[in-house]
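One such shown below:
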Amino acid sequence: MKNAISWFEIGTTDLNRATTFYETIFGIKLNPLDLPDIKMRMFPIDDMMGVGGALVDSGGFHKPSATDGPLIYLNGNPDVQIILDKVEAAGGKIMMPKTEISPEYGNMAVIIDTEGNRIGLHSIPQ
């Protein structure tokens, strides 16, 4: 098993707002994929065998939460602080500021996105 995670979905109540938030804080372009009953905006990946994920509007199947459910950590390299500096201006909140895990395991932070989801950020020392 190369990665513990193969796919993740972040629930949204306003897909356009969530897309703008994540594109702004990470400086990326999300890729649309709309199916009959679900709309997704996929995070770009370099390798189709790598870990992928998407923002999802599933008409209520996904429920954003700041307290319940799993906590996923998105790649915050090279430094989570670069992303944290954009969060509030993009409409999110910082729940836990940049915190060192250890010198070898890097730093973490936790934010609340525009949809009310609790999302972790992680960066490894370069």
